[in-house]
Amino acid sequence: MNLLERAANRRQAALVELDTANQVALGQFFTPVAVAQIMADLVHLPESGTLRVLDPGAGSGMLSAAVVDRVRRERPNVRVTVTAVELDERLWPALTETLADCESAGGVRTSLVKNDFVQWALHTDERFDLVIQNPPYHKIRARSALDADLRSAGIAVPNIYAGFMALGTLLVNTGGQQVSITPRSWMNGTYFGQFRRTLLASFGIDAIHTFHSRSEVFGDLGVLQETIIVSATHGSQPETVRLSSSVDHRDAPAARHVPASQVVTGDFVFVPASAQDAEAVEWMACARYTLAELGLTVSTGRVVDFRAREYLMQEPSDGAAPMVYPANITQQRVFHPRSSVRKPQWFHAAETVHSKLLIPAGTYVLVKRFSAKEENRRLVAAVWSDDSRQPAFDNKLNYIHCSGHGLEQQVAAGLAVWLNSKPVDDYFRVFSGHTQVNAGDLRQMRFPSLDQLRRLGESTHDPEEAIRRVMGMTRMEAA
């Protein structure tokens, strides 16, 4: 067996020995050998000298082995030093064996740091040419010791994986590189805004690898997150970005180079894995306004049904308000009441509760936060309009409003046409790596002007044709 095969066997043996509950608590997801090879292939190898490598949360050492294996094959005259940091003492024997195996390849020195990576990174003076990592995934509790430690270094992130990435950027030399496999969620949205801005201010993204299959990458660990590999180099943003993708981690990647403007746009990182994705990003340039710039707001429905059971009713009564769920939306329309909805569709409570949970009567655009399995769309919107009754909107719905009140009927209709169009849905899939539609995502998207929305709402053409006419596109641009 070669170096990688032996490392892969140790990974499998280590997985068998680990306690699942503790593994989840630590957010451990060990890197499959094929993923490690994809990541190692993105590393910029020097022609000579020494490549100083840091492997945070090294696990069984798969990433270190993959880098050493590639260097020994392609740059046999380059020396390698590997610093592997691992907190879990149950992994130290396997990791020690892998590091010793790396040294036996020749021209390699290794060091095992038996410590928590965050604590070590905050105090070390070492710097590296390459940080390659598969960081742990778990949320950071606000005001926890971990949160305080990271904030002491100017790092404010909601998940530990972004904390590892941020610390990695601090430990890279000028011109150094970081290659990470993480959830895609850091690339957009308000929660990771500060982290994203800080990263893009001093690092340029030079390569991104995506997987078409969510379930296969870490299939032996039951992980379903949409994972993505990103290579970023300290310095200015390169003019082009290498985009590659594969069905899962076993298929040969298909790669192409695209202008950086299609990937790093303002405050977001797009992932146009295909030419069609790139076209979706370019198409969206026709829209220029955020909801805030239009004087509109999006919020999440106020009623969490299991917390409001005492107010929910199967039949209407005097003073009862319509209770609207995602299941009330079908074929881009709201049907209430709807016989197929099994939940209580009426809300009745004292006036004090009404004021907290109900919305003023009027016209709103509802957007499902989660799409049903049988739906092939990520964005599903519909207009709710009732000038006489205050509605109750379920927490699994977002609703677009104007300062807490209803919208103009034509504006609402235009918003629904826009959100339900295929080009916007295609764009959203490139823009957002989430499986759900968050209010924050809608706040950051771009929309037509109010006048254009009114014209969309009044148009009698089919949605795609209406958008083409209102936005002044040629048929080729709209395609």
**Overall form:** elongated
User: What fold name stands as the CATH topology of the largest domain?
Assistant: Rossmann fold
Strand order in the largest sheet: 3-2-1-4-5-7-6-8-9
- CATH architecture level-2 label of the largest domain: 3-Layer(aba) Sandwich
Let me know the CATH homologous superfamily of the largest domain: Vaccinia Virus protein VP39
The description of the largest β-sheet is: 9 strands, mixed
C-alpha-based Rg, rounded: 26 Å
Whole-number average pLDDT? 89
Structural class: alpha/beta
In terms of per-residue confidence, which ranges show pLDDT below 50 for 5 or more consecutive residues? 219-224, 474-479
Number of strands: 21
Q: What's the CATH class label of the largest domain?
A: Alpha Beta
Q: State the share of residues found in helices, binned by percent.
A: 25-40%
Number of domains: 2
Number of helices: 17
The N- and C-terminal alpha carbons lie at a distance of: 52 Å
Feature tags:
479 residues, alpha/beta, Rossmann fold, Adenine-n6-DNA-methyltransferase TaqI, Chain A, domain 2, 2 domains, 9-stranded mixed sheet, 17 helices, 21 strands, 23% strand, elongated, disordered C terminus
